Pumilio homology domain family member 3
Amino acid sequence: MQYYPTGHIRVTRPGDEGQGVLGLRSARLEEFRANRSRKWDIKDIFGFVVEFSGDQHGSRFIQQRLETASAEEKQRVFDEITPGHIIGLVSDVFGNYVIQKLLEHGTPAQRTIIVNAMEGHILTLSLHMYGCRVVQRAVEYITPEQQTALLKEIEPHVLRCVKDANGNHVIQKIIERVAPERLVFVDVFRGAVFELSTHAYGCRVLQRCLEHLPHTLTHPIIEELQKYTINLMQDQFGNYVIQFVLEHGQPQDRALVVNKLRGQLLHMARHKFASNVVEKALVCAPTDNRRTLIEEILTVQSDGSNPVVVMMKDQFGNYVLQRAMTVAEGDQREELFNAVKPQLATMRRVSNAYNKHLLAIERLLEKYHGPLISEPAPPTSSS
């Protein structure tokens, strides 16, 4: 930090060396940072708005004041920022929040000026750590026509944005906020559904599609997903996409996923990622499908293994069993609980590994069947 005879202080932030937003710290900002006990008003920083916007404390102050400022005060703030400082602040670690507040609390005319300043830079800003936040906020507050103009810059680069740590958030926001008939870029996902489902960011975008878009747009995606359901269930990212099909898909889509589980439920229940899908299936499946899955848990396999016992001992399977005990109904719940109870007693006798998983199962039994009867302690030998 260096002092200059003009009353400004040269400041830098780690990673921000050379940023024009910071420049020299004025005596006004220095006083603001040093004298926080003074009751500052938005009018006190007029002439210094851009500088305050690029400062951690100054930015927070402006954000708070913009929420209650008069139209005239907002206009004064806006006039200092436009036209030459919008892009610089959009990309600034603190300044981006001020632009977001102006988008939220500004007038339609002010929003238009901000969006026009961003025109031609939408892709770059969408891929930027701070700029992507402003683009997302813009999507929320601009007009449908302005959304369309923004989309035109994004559409040729949709897959790049989807796979980007920052850009994927912009695509998610667009899917949430833009009218479905404008989202022609969803067609780009065809042929890449498996790749996107198994991608850390792509899976999030597909989830937003399944959550917010009409079936006419999601049907091709789900149809493609069905080809890879088993593989995706076992993928660290893909399992979330399959869970979303179970939660938000049409009944026929959910039924197709459940049918994929039939015959291999025990294997999937013991898998780190697929077990989450099995739990979701037990919750979201129609009653008949749910009964089919639980029946598979109750059926001893051809090799003699008892799914109830295997799942009780397994670090992932025990959670599936607990979920089955919670959602089972009527005679099937009784049958399941009766299958669990003797196994629980046996494990308690022969193993010291009576861990929290078995304790959770015991609590479920007690919740629905009342307190378990403790077995008598073995007799002690007389001396």
Remarks:
- The first strand starts at residue 2 and ends at 3.
- The radius of gyration is 29 Å.
